[in-house]
Amino acid sequence: VDRLAWLLDPSVNISRLLSATGASSYSSSTRAGPQLPVWPTSPSAPATLPASSVATNDAANGLCDGRSYHCFISHNWGKDSQGRDNHLRVLQIARALQKHGVEVFVDDWEAHRYDSVDEAIVDGMRRSSVALVFITRAYIDKIEESTIEDDCVAQFNLAKRAPGIIPVIMEPELMQPSRWGWNRVYAHLSGKKLVDLSRGEVSGLPGILWN
Question: According to the UniProt record, where is the region Disordered (predicted)?
Fold first, then answer.
């Protein structure tokens, strides 16, 4: 069940819905960021920018189709299988990306601009070129349970519609997609280029993304 389905209707004017909070007038900084790749479905194929972005002014900074953010981050809270705080690790990654000139949408940071979390998630995904999905066993379980109130489920449903999607592995035992189980996460992400941040330092993500 997708609680955000009504907001995905093209006839719904998100800018009008958000006008009361001023969110519709917000735009990211104008500094030029790196060319963030959109990974293809085949792990062996080269990563390239979407062809649609080449003809736009945003091609120079890795944004596509006039979007404001390079990436939207979807993750779960709580401890991972190694006893680490997954939320804090993901925020470290987000800050590392920002230091490299990447515009990041984290709903925790942006929610104050909106009337609801749902509006923040939908508008953030619409404004982002790539969805970064941080894979843990708990995240997979949330998607499988598909609880309508769960933000991870709402984010995942939208991430599948993003111009690009990159699975970021946060637990070492999940580097093999065959260990994810037969579920929606496996069906949609197992063929993508995987980024391994399951061990040690998490601030190396920018370099991993662009190489």
Answer: 25-44
**Order of strands across the sheet with 104-105?**
104-105, 69-74, 128-135, 164-169, 195-196
> Tell me: the pLDDT tens digits for 108-143?
777 667 777 778 888 888 888 889 999 999 999 999
Superfamily of domain covering 37-43+60-209: Toll/interleukin-1 receptor homology (TIR) domain (3.40.50.10140)
Range 163-168 average pLDDT: 91
What distance lies between CA 134 and its chain's CA centroid? Answer: 8
Are the beta carbons of 134 and 75 closer than 8 angstroms?
yes
Instruction: Report how far residue 72's alpha carbon sits from residue 90's, in angstroms, rounded to the nearest whole number.
Output: 12
